[in-house]
Each structure stands twice: as structure tokens, then as C-alpha cells.
Amino acid sequence: MSSATSRVAQARPAPTGEPATTAEAGVAAAAPGQAATETASAAGSTLPSGGGLPPEGTPRVAADYSSYRVVAAKHPWRWVGTAAVALGVLAVAWSLATNPRWEWGVVAQWFTAQSVVNGLLETLKLTAISGILGFVLGFILALMRLSASPLLVSVSWTFSWIFRSTPLLVQLLLWYNLGYLYEKISLGIPFTDVRFFEVQTTTLISQFAAAVLGLTLNQAAYSAEIIRGGILSVDQGQLEAAAALGIPAWRRSTRIVLPQAMRAILPTAFNEIIGLVKGTSIVYVLAYSELFYTVQVIYNRTQQVLPLLLVATLWYVVITSVLSVFQYYIERHYSKGAVRNLPLTPLQKARKFFATHAVTNRKSL
């Protein structure tokens, strides 16, 4: 290192008025390269002794890091936040478990009671029927809204406007009291006396029929906007390219548009389904024996209000949790066309976390 420094010192520019000699200029030009060469050779580089780049084909010597110690990155504030949240969760859990006023024995007694289970099955039936019919009707309304016909667009828009503007409770009561407005419901040729089918409204519109009708039509209004937004999220250039290739319109819709639109539709659609599960509790105003109405009848008889409300709450949590799991895996399936690698499942993330920390701990020993 001292020799390189001395050569650089010897290559200082000549005093003012004296031109630098050719030899001095050569030393000045070579000194930095020689110093860099010596430094690189000291580190085990393959650079030639004269400086410059190594000749082509010269094998590179890989750096040896085997003697280095692998240490996991430190995240102290992450651990502080985790500890604080864990402490809060434990405090809430301890409060719920030790407060005798929750009456957990009563909750356990009624949680699997036959009457409660029957109410739960009615809730699931209402959710399934209303959800399926609502999304089918919503899909039709979305296609009408996207059509080129002004009449279809106007009818679809008016439907969504009316049913999104009125409370669900009002809609349920209106359908249940439809017999007051129309004594009979008939099917025939409009503006004539020809009737193919006729029935008393009070016979046709039962509590269950009014509940399904109200939930379905309300759900269809929101589903139409969800599906329409998902379809519009697909790039129009893909449709133009598919049309240029001569792909039929139906095949373009089923193989190009809908698979991509599902990525935008699914999150909001599952939110609507989860909301529908909880929205079935409003049907209690029709005295229909779904979960919430059943629990209400029981606590009116036993005066155990909070434990019975907790029973209903726990069942709603179970249903929405199962739906959330389905949502995660369905979204993961439809994300294949948007990401190179599918996101890890929670179980895979846990396995990766523990495997990484186990390897790190072994190497640090």
C-alpha cells in the first residue's frame, strides 16, 4: 500500500510553468490502475496484474461465505406490537370466561337445542334460496343494464333504484300484506279476461314466500351492480381482440369476460352473502321461525335474554366463518390468471414461518 501511495505521490503535477514529462504522465495514468489492481488482488480477484478487465473465458472465483454466521433480522417493534395485541386478546378472553353474568352454562344448554338447530336450518334455507335466486336475477339485470336497448337499460336501472332506496324491513312487510292490495293473483293474457291460472293471494304469499320474495328482490338489486361492475372491469381490448379472431359472443363471455370479472365480483359478492345471512334475522317481523325469532321466543319464556342472544350470535359467527373460508379458496382459484404464483394458504404460511425460524436457529448455534 505504501508503494502505491509513493507512486501516486511521484505522479503529482509539475510546478507551474514546467510541462510534465512523458514519463511522469505515464506514471500518473498508471498509478490509479495499479493501486486498484493491488487492492483487488489482495481480495482474491481474478483481475490481471496490469489492470483492466480480465480476458474472456477467465473463470470467476465465487466468494466463500461459509464462515459467516447467519443471523435472523431483528424486528423489536414488531414483537412489541405482537405482545401488546396478545395481551389485549388474553384480557378480553379472560373477562368473557370469568364473568358469571354471561351464564355460559345456559349458553351450552341451548346452543345445540333442537329448537335452535331447527331455526338455524331455516336461516340457512332462506340464505341459500334467496342468495341463488338473487344472484341469478342480478346477473340478468346486469346484462340488461349493459345492453344497447334503452328500454332494458331503463327497466334495470329503475329496479335497482327502487329496491336500493327502500328499507328491507318495509319490503318484507309490503310483500306479506300483498293480499290487501290484490285479493287474487292470476296469470293470463294482459288487457283481456283470459286467465290460465288464478289463486288467492293470502294462500300464495305465506310467511316463507314473503321472506324469500323480499330477500331475493332486495339482493338482486345489489347483485346487479356488483356483477355489472365486475364485467366493466375487464379490459375492452381483450374483447376486441377476441372478436377479431372470430370467437363467438357467448364463448367470449364465458371464457374471457366472466373468469376475469370473477376476481372483481367475488369479494363484494361474498360480502353480500354474509350480509344476507345476518339480514335473515329481520324476517322475525313476519313471525317466521328462523334462528333469531326462535331465540327470541325462548328468552321471552325463560327471561334469559343475554345467554340466548349469545347463542344466536355464536351461530352467526360460525356461519360467516365458514363462508369466509370458502371465499378465500374461491378467490385463490380465480387469481391464477393474475399472479405468477398462487398466494400461500394460512396453513402453508404457518409451516413456512416455523420452518424458516427452525433453520435460522440451527445455523445460529
TrEMBL record:
Q: What does UniProt give as GO cellular component?
A: ATP-binding cassette (ABC) transporter complex
Origin: domain of life: Bacteria
Instruction: Write the record's keywords in alphabetical order, separated by commas.
Output: Amino-acid transport, Cell membrane, Membrane, Transmembrane, Transmembrane helix, Transport
The question of whether Transmembrane is a record keyword is answered with yes
Q: Where is this chain primarily localised?
A: membrane
Record's PROSITE patterns? ABC_TM1
Ranges annotated as spanning the membrane: 77-97, 126-144, 151-176, 281-299, 305-330
Q: Low complexity bias located where?
A: 11-48
Q: Where is this region: Disordered?
A: 1-56
Q: Does the keyword Signal apply?
A: no
Q: Which NCBIfam families match?
A: HEQRo_perm_3TM
Listed name of the protein: Polar amino acid ABC transporter, inner membrane subunit
Q: Name its species.
A: Pseudarthrobacter chlorophenolicus (strain ATCC 700700 / DSM 12829 / CIP 107037 / JCM 12360 / KCTC 9906 / NCIMB 13794 / A6) (Arthrobacter chlorophenolicus)
